[in-house]
Write a structure and sequence with these properties.
231 residues, alpha/beta, BirA Bifunctional Protein, domain 2, 8-stranded mixed β-sheet, 3-stranded mixed β-sheet, 28% strand
Length: 231
């Protein structure tokens, strides 16, 4: 049986830190392009030449593998390109209808505590889901945010958001992905985030009956980010 982690205080910015820049990209950003931009921005933040950044985007259909990916996670499927990353976690899917948020935050200024940072990301997602009437939950043994689905069977719960992070000199890369209205069949044939229990699947806002545009979700993400990460 899993239990919810207790969230520690959020990672609010000190008063002297420059405001976080927000960027929203239209279209589908190629993964290589996003990775290169993250690396450039993190180098600039480390050097004190650029402010922190939250970047909201969508990718074309693809798989990414983290440092914990196992050989059987892909389960033999080659339907979408696979990219290796330096983030934590295992194999996951990105694609249209999924809001990806890449965060380049300076933990030198916010507290050098990676566990606390991941908990704050989970709380960010949970607060955002709450704005749409969805109860998201965290699990002690699984990173990410989950939704109970008792109507689909005893003990059933589905993952609605994934988290994968990397830190370079205490500046963060990668971030979260929240399923708004992706094609959930694109998860078929993979062990996403290491979730192999048949009682655990994936869901989205649309799958839960919530009609929300990406702009609606972006507004909720911004408001909840400000609550947790802005003093």
């Amino acid at each position: 049986m899993t239990t919810a982690r207790i969230l520690e205080p959020p990672l609010a910015a000190p008063a002297n830190l420059a405001p976080v820049e927000w960027r929203v990209s239209t279209g589908h950003v190629p993964y290589e392009e996003a990775l290169a931009e993250m690396e450039r921005r993190v180098a600039a933040i480390i050097a004190g030449e650029a402010p922190e950044l939250v970047w909201l985007l969508e990718h074309p259909p693809l798989f990414t593998s983290g440092t914990g990916t196992r050989t059987d996670d892909l389960a033999g499927t080659t339907r979408f390109p696979l990219f290796e990353t330096g983030r934590g976690g295992r194999l996951t899917y990105h694609g249209p209808g999924q809001r990806v948020a890449y965060l380049m935050l300076d933990l030198r200024q916010r507290g050098q505590d990676l566990r606390r940072y991941v908990a704050a990301l989970e709380e960010w997602i949970i607060g955002t889901l709450s704005d749409f009437g969805v109860q998201g939950e965290r699990r002690e043994d699984r990173v990410g945010v989950w939704v109970r689905r008792p109507s689909l069977g005893a003990g059933r719960e589905d993952k609605i958001a994934a988290i994968g992070v990397r830190v370079k000199k205490w500046v963060t890369l990668h971030g979260i992905s929240l399923n708004v209205a992706p094609d959930l069949t694109h998860y078929d044939g993979i062990i996403a985030c290491g979730v192999a229990d048949p009682r655990q699947g994936v869901t989205s806002l649309r799958d839960l009956g919530v009609t929300a545009s990406m702009a609606d979700v972006d507004a909720a993400l911004r408001a909840n980010f400000d609550r947790l990460f802005t003093r």
